[in-house]
Amino acid sequence: MVDINNAIIRDVIIHKVNSSRDSLKLNENVIEVSDEDQESTLRRILLKSFSSASSTYEFSHNIDIDLNTLFKISKDIYGGSDFINSSKNIATHLFTSSRHPGIKDGDLFIAKFDDIKLKDTFHEAIGIYKFENKESFVEITGNDKDNKIGIKFRQGIGSKKPEKACLILFTDDRYTVFLLENSNSETEYWTHDFLGVEPKRDNVNSTNHVLSLTKAFVTEKLPEDHEASRADQIDLLNRSVSFFKQHETFSNSVFEREVLQDENIIESFRTFNNLFKEERKLEWQDNFAIAQDVVKKQARIFKKVLKLDKNFDIYIHGEKSLIERGVEDDGRKFYKIYYNQEM
Fold it and tell me: Are residues 136 and 37 in the same domain?
């Protein structure tokens, strides 16, 4: 994941994109940040949300990468072109990419950063943020001379994330892009028409994809093909997460042998694997370095709770051999659990 603890804000500029009124208001000056408190506030608004982003993207184009408009502008900024003029080009490109119904107006922040860390290396970067919705806040007014204290109701940008944002790190030839998208608003134009990005083929996405594949297989396909109980599913999910936590590299053959084990399950997994990739248009290598930050994040959504009617929740962390499933003569189902000590 990206590390923003040492990030330095070099420049920030704001433009207004009014798609509904078919207008674009371009700023001629960067924002003056006069003290550390202001910079800290801007850093929180512009960068904090990216600290938990794990999926990585890169610029793409079906003919030539230099024909990707935003890639070309970003490349110019990295090469030292005038930041204000380049930011205007970004705003104009967004305006032309979002001129159809349903797209909201917004304030467009464009920022240039130094010292954003990824994989132990510091990079320059630019951030692009579209704020479509403002939040209300109260400003306290008054002074010590007349002892009058009052309030003003204002609207602005504060604790909420931008509706759409991207952080472009100048890494390799196609750079590394992180995205933030509000799922409740139109995003297709932002990702495809404006940014022109696709998932990056790196170990971060590979780790993400295989964990998502495994979870989908265990919860959807395994019970369908092999009549696996919920306890069996949880056991396989636990073994999968343990594999990723205990290994530095992923090998498809080793994963199948150590985690899936059964030949029939392995065959089902391979078939499901191919369908999963095809339906989602994903690709990853059979061997890659495991991204532990992704494992930590993904492990939280691997459910380990066995819910029995509305009476019991059983948390299963391992040792499937200590739990047995059965059915009474009268049809009632049961689980028998073995343990050595109450905790």
Answer: yes
* Domain match, 175 and 214 both: no
CB atoms within 10 A of CB 80: 7
Closest CA to 93 of 178, 176, 168, 196: 196
139 SS3 class: strand
pTM over cut 0.70: yes
Q: Output the CA angle 210-212-218, nearest 5 degrees.
A: 100
Q: Are residues 306 and 165 in the same domain?
A: no
Spatial separation of the C-alpha atoms in residues 76 and 2, rounded to whole Å: 23
Q: In whole angstroms, give the CA distance from residue 319 to residue 309.
A: 23
Say if CB 202 and CB 161 are below 8 A apart.
Answer: no
Q: What share of the chain is helix, strand, coil (3-state, %, to 5)?
A: 40, 30, 35
Q: What is the DSSP letter of 3?
A: B
Confidence of residue 54 (pLDDT cuts 50, 70, 90): confident
For residue 302, give both structure tokens: 């691997």
Beta-bridge mates of residue 333 = 327
Candidate from 6-10, 233-237, 242-246 with smallest mean pLDDT:
233-237
In Å, what is the CA distance from 292 to each residue of 246, 273, 295, 299, 315? 10, 22, 5, 10, 24
**Residues 24 and 156 occupy one common structural domain:** yes
Q: How many domains does the chain have?
A: 2
Q: Write down the mean pLDDT value for the chain.
A: 83
Q: Domain of residue 120: give its range.
A: 8-199
Going by C-alpha positions, the residue among 275, 261, 210, 273 that lies closest to residue 232 is 261
Query: What is the reported pLDDT for 257?
Result: 94
Residues with Cβ within 8 Å of 214's Cβ and at least 6 positions away in sequence, in order, are: 237, 240
